[in-house]
Amino acid sequence: MHGIAFQLFGLSIHWYGIMVAAGFLTSLAVLQYKRDYARMTSDQVVDLSIIVVVCGIIGARIAYVIQFFDQFRGNLWKVFRVDQGGLVFYGGFILAALVIFRYVRKHKLCVSRILDICAPAMAVGHAFGRVGCFLQGCCFGIPCRTFGKVYPPGTAPAARYPDMDSIALNLQTTGKAAASSLPLLPVQLFESAGNLLLGIALLLLFRKIRRSGTIASVYFIGYGIMRFVLECFRGDHTDRIIGLTRAQLVGLFIMIPLGIFCYFYFRKHGEDVCAGSNG
């Protein structure tokens, strides 16, 4: 896989940045599609989307830099090269959630309805982002000979899981004695597919719910479980806490409990929703 899509006026345009942009536009389309449910104007949707995306990227980047600070030692300028990959979803999620609550209070909107429309938007947008991770070579999986994907020399996957048998071939074809990666499980694409299916399921669920806040609750629980399972197949993590990755800890002790709490809280305090007429 190669992270650079093309050159533009001497600048390298990375697939990761392209996919993040595509994810933003898709999320915006979902929010516009469901804005009547949340009683938002089109301008409010655009304003909130831009604020959430900017703050989400900042939060996700901060979390990534903290977790993988060794990658930036000696070259702190790389901290700002978000287009080259390197975002931790949960970091962005936390900061974006704080921004959403601040925006809702300021404009006197219904928080449960806002969370409901943000849930599928985040899911489908995240699906595009994970494709970008796959193309960029971050968030890679564990070695898998059956249908794994090989990354070229010089990439993070090749450094983590070098295929020593590839050195001779690379020397013959490129003139450089460098190792490609072992075939690695494309776990990024699995999460992309899972997010896409989750987003579609959430959109369909609008026709069935009776209380606002239900959609968000299902998203918190669903994504928390999915991420916990897929983390077992990630190959880029070397550190563990009580045998679990940071993402698994967040999913197990924050996302899933948050979803359960929201479900029961909004079942009592959420607004009545007329099923079948939610846009």
* Shape call: elongated
Placed side by side, the strands forming the largest sheet appear as 1-2
Taking all Cα atoms into account, the compactness measure Rg is 20 Å
Please trace the helix and strand order, writing H or E for each element. EEHHHHHHEHEHHH
Fraction of residues in H or I helices: 55-70%
Gap from first CA to last CA: 40 Å
The major pleated sheet works out as: 2 strands, antiparallel
The amount of beta strand, in percent, is under 5%
The average pLDDT value, as a whole number, equals: 89
What is the number of E strands? 4
Please indicate the count of domains: 2
By helix and strand content, what is the structural category? Answer: mainly alpha
| Count of helical regions | 10
Low-confidence stretches: none
Question: How would you characterize this protein structure?
Answer:
The chain is mainly alpha-helical and 279 residues long. The protein folds into 2 domains: 4-142 and 185-269, no CATH class; 151-184, no CATH class. Helix content is 60%, strand content 5%. The chain has 10 helices and 4 strands; from the N terminus they run E-E-H-H-H-H-H-H-E-H-E-H-H-H. The chain has helices at 15-33, 35-38, 42-67, 89-107, 111-136, 156-160, 167-174, 187-205, 214-230, 246-269, and strands spanning 4-8, 11-14, 162-163, 180-181. The strands form 2 sheets. Strands 1-2 form a two-stranded antiparallel sheet. The chain has a two-stranded antiparallel ribbon with strand order 3-4. Strand 1 (4-8) and strand 2 form a beta hairpin. Helix 3 (42-67) packs antiparallel against helix 4, helix 4 runs antiparallel to helix 5 (111-136) and helix 5 (111-136) packs parallel to helix 9. The two termini are 40 Å apart.
